[in-house]
Structure formats: structure tokens, C-alpha cells
Design brief:
The complex is a heterodimer of chains A (132) and B (174). Chain A is mainly α. Chain A has four helices and no strands. In chain A, helix 2 packs across helix 3. With 174 residues, chain B is mainly alpha-helical. In chain B, helix 7 packs across helix 8. Classes of the chains: A mainly alpha (132), B mainly alpha (174).
Chain lengths: 132, 174
């Protein structure tokens, strides 16, 4: 293994990923013809790439049945159990009506309070005036 | 229904239309599964969590604001559920390791490819898994992971190097 090998091995990984430029690929291939260590490393990585590709291809072939399992589970899912879904009526109209109703209620309560208090104070004043 | 855009399917799903959501499952499940497998590194867990993600997606679709953002949103749900599981497992593992070290047990070594993938660090495993689920397109992985193309490239290189080491070590130890 010479000083170029580290650099070339970086290139081999990129070569396997398919991200190496043509010029760099040629340089790597040239090195591989001369260096048995790097050539072995490249062979191993290419073999691993094939194993990985076959491994993940297994999922691809099962993907449809995996999706179907999800869809089956979806069918069994209770819609009533779903969380809050945005609705114009519930999320826009009702809150606006509720806000106005609350404001009106507060105004009524405050008005009633002041009327009662005013009446009560007037009666007290009347009583005091009569007593004097 | 195959021709409908995600936006239309999301709107229908919001109203509880399971057929519309099933179409979204057919379109996005593979990417959700890839993210789960990439983060968890374990096929069984990835399958379970990916299913949970899709079902949770249906139940929570009302919370999705932009209908056109379904893909990003569901991948975010996937990532969060996977990280939750990892946190739970980490706690369980810490407890199990304590017990194992007390009884002198050592963790068993798994030398096969799936085991080696599972032992890769998550930050390089995820791009590697996504590489095979996205037609080996670095650009798409970069978009999905929100990193640069060269970032994806570096992570893939690191993944190949470490995977090779793990597999070689495995063979030597056998």
C-alpha cells in the first residue's frame, strides 16, 4: 500500500456510489490495475454494493404487501377515534359566536351589578335622608 | 383516484375518507419505511413504526396545515416516532446492560448484513438506506434530509467504509 492508496480508496467508495467523475474514474481504474491491495478493496466494496442492492430489493418486492398491511390496519381504525379535524363550523363560527355570547354575558352581568348597586345606594341615601 | 394530487387526497382524508388516505399510503409508505429503517436500523421495528406513522398520520391529518406539505410532515412524524422509540430503547438497554454485566454476559455479535447495517451510526445509516429507496438519487436524499449533495456523498462514503470494516471483522471473527 503506497501513499496514493488512501486517496484512491476514497475514490473507490465514490466510484461504488456512482459519484466519481470520468477523469477520476480513469485514474482510479489505472491505479487498480497496478495495486492488488486496492483492487481487492474495490472488489470487496463492489460485492458489498451488490449485497446491499439485493438486500434492499427484497423490501421493494415486499413493499406492496407491507402497504396493504397498513391499509388493512387503516380499515380497522375507528374514525371516531380520530383527533380534532379542522372544521369551519366548529373552529371558526362557534368560537366567534361563543366569544360574542361571552362578551354579551359580561356586559349584562356588569350592567345588572351596577343597577342593583345604584338602586341599593339610592335606597340607603333615601333612608339616611329620612332618618335625619 | 391515482391521478389525484396529494393536496386533494389530504383534503379528502381530513374528512375521514380512508380510500383517499390509502392512496397516500401507497405513495409515501416506502419513504416512511426507509426513514424508519435508516434511523432504527432494525427491520421489524422499522415495519412496526412505519405502520404506526401512517395510522397516526390519518388520525392527526387535521393538524397538517398545508395540504401540499404531506410528504415533509409524514417524514417528520416518522422521525419523531423513531427517535421516541430509540430513547425508550436506550433506557431499556442501559438497564439490560447493567443486568448483563452483573451476570457476566456479553452481547451476542450479529455478523450478517442486516446486523452490520444496524450497527452503523444513525447519521450515516439513514442516507445509506435512503440511497436504495430513492433510486440512488443523491439529490432526492439531500432534499429529504435537508443537507447538501456533498454532505450525502460524504456520509455514503463513510457508511461504505464502516460497513466494510464491520463485515470484514465479522468474517474474521467467525
Amino acid at each position: 500500500m503506497n501513499s496514493d492508496c488512501d486517496k484512491i480508496r476514497d475514490g473507490i467508495e465514490e466510484l461504488v456510489n456512482g459519484t466519481l467523475s470520468e477523469a477520476e474514474t480513469n485514474a482510479v481504474r489505472q491505479h487498480l490495475r497496478e495495486c492488488s491491495g486496492c483492487s481487492q478493496y474495490a472488489g470487496a466494496l463492489e460485492e458489498e454494493e451488490q449485497r446491499l442492492a439485493s438486500y434492499f430489493a427484497l423490501f421493494e418486492s415486499n413493499m406492496s404487501s407491507m402497504e396493504d398491511e397498513v391499509i388493512d390496519a387503516l380499515e380497522r381504525t375507528e374514525v371516531s377515534g380520530r383527533e380534532k379535524v379542522f372544521s369551519v363550523g366548529r373552529d371558526v363560527i362557534i368560537p366567534i359566536v361563543a366569544k360574542h355570547a361571552l362578551a354579551a354575558a359580561v356586559i349584562v352581568v356588569v350592567t345588572v351589578y351596577f343597577v342593583i348597586t345604584f338602586t341599593w345606594i339610592s335606597q340607603i341615601n333615601e333612608y339616611i335622608a329620612r332618618s335625619i | 383516484m391515482d391521478d389525484f394530487s396529494d393536496e386533494i387526497l389530504v383534503e379528502a382524508s381530513r374528512r375521514g375518507d380512508k380510500r383517499a388516505y390509502a392512496m397516500l399510503v401507497k405513495r409515501h409508505y416506502r419513504y416512511v419505511f426507509a426513514v424508519c429503517l435508516g434511523i432504527l436500523g432494525n427491520v421489524d421495528d422499522a415495519e412496526d413504526i412505519a405502520q404506526d406513522v401512517m395510522l397516526k398520520g390519518f388520525l392527526k391529518i387535521g393538524k397538517l396545515r398545508g395540504s401540499e406539505q404531506f410528504n415533509k410532515w409524514i417524514l417528520r412524524v416518522a422521525r419523531n416516532l423513531c427517535l421516541d422509540l430509540l430513547r425508550r430503547k436506550k433506557r431499556a438497554r442501559a438497564w439490560a446492560t447493567k443486568r448483563a454485566s452483573r451476570s457476566g454476559q456479553t452481547a451476542s455479535q450479529n455478523h450478517d448484513l442486516a446486523g452490520a447495517i444496524g450497527r452503523l451510526p444513525q447519521e450515516i445509516r439513514l442516507p445509506l438506506v435512503m440511497y436504495y429507496f430513492n433510486n440512488k438519487s443523491l439529490k432526492r436524499i439531500a432534499e429529504k434530509l435537508k443537507i447538501s449533495n456533498s454532505g450525502v456523498c460524504q456520509r455514503l462514503k463513510a457508511a461504505r467504509k464502516q460497513l466494510h470494516e464491520l463485515l470484514t471483522k465479522g468474517v474474521q471473527n467467525e
